[in-house]
Amino acid sequence: MTDTIHEIPLDQIDAEALPRDRATRDPEADHELQLSILAEGLRQPVELFAMEGDTPYGLIAGHRRLAAFRALERATIPAFLRRPADIPAALAAMVSENEMRAQISPWEKGRLVVTCVAQGHFPNADAAIDSLYATLSRQKRSRLRSLVMAVEAFEDRFATPERLSLARLERLASALRAGWEDMLRAALPSPRSHSLESQWLAIEPVLAEATSPEGAASAPGTPRMPRRLLKLRQGLTIRRELTRSGWVLRFSGPEAKTPGLMDDVMDHVERMFGSAPDGR
């Protein structure tokens, strides 16, 4: 049996009735879609569900297609009308359609789960993952839990987070599970002044130590917890960092820009350990 296609006025459709799993837009791809619609029409109708309130329909699938029709100033759009049992079922349908038609980044998948839980559609992340990604293997659903952990800890902290690979997000989650969230936050520069790659370079030493045998041996809860991070007056932050050649202390904050601070630190170290025989 063929689904009935309805012509639905665009002003009767709420494109944001459901949390979306695609956070980024590609202007070039959007323009190509508009040209394709002009030349060949819409090959696949959008999918809608009935809602109560001023806007009678909510969008399940076809966000880019709907945006293209609006950009082309069309009055209506071809649509299939679905009857999901509830909002979680509609969300699951959206995810299923996008898994087949669109490349959704690992970060966007994790962010969708976090958003759905925050909006009350599911009681917790496990329930959201089991409902939205029911067809995935147990191993892949476990990986999704790692993505959710990374999104919860670093939402709005990375520039272009949708470009983070699955491997990088899993490294972040491993470090979080080991108790290194404060260190990672202290090392992560602002997305307003740094690109994703420069941010990653800044936290790479922390991740390397967190996932090393030395890092695991000194994780929170072990008998001797090292002092890895100090937050002092006027925003001064000091963290220790393991490098290939040994340990370094990294100072940040407004006061760290004062040369006299380093002089004071070196004077204190000299008092503790004594100066070299030649005075250097």
Automatic annotation (TrEMBL):
Q: What is this protein called?
A: ParB family chromosome partitioning protein
Task: Report which superkingdom the organism of origin falls in.
Answer: Bacteria
Which SUPFAM superfamilies does UniProt cross-reference here? ParB/Sulfiredoxin
Q: Which Pfam families match?
A: ParB_N
Task: List the PANTHER family hit by this protein, alphabetically.
Answer: CHROMOSOME-PARTITIONING PROTEIN PARB-RELATED (PTHR33375:SF1)
Q: GO annotations under biological process?
A: chromosome segregation
| SMART domains xrefs | ParB
GO CC, alphabetical = chromosome
Q: Sorted alphabetically, which InterPro entries does this protein's record hold?
A: Chromosome_partition/occlusion, ParB/Sulfiredoxin_sf, ParB_N
Q: Where is the ParB-like N-terminal domain?
A: 6-99
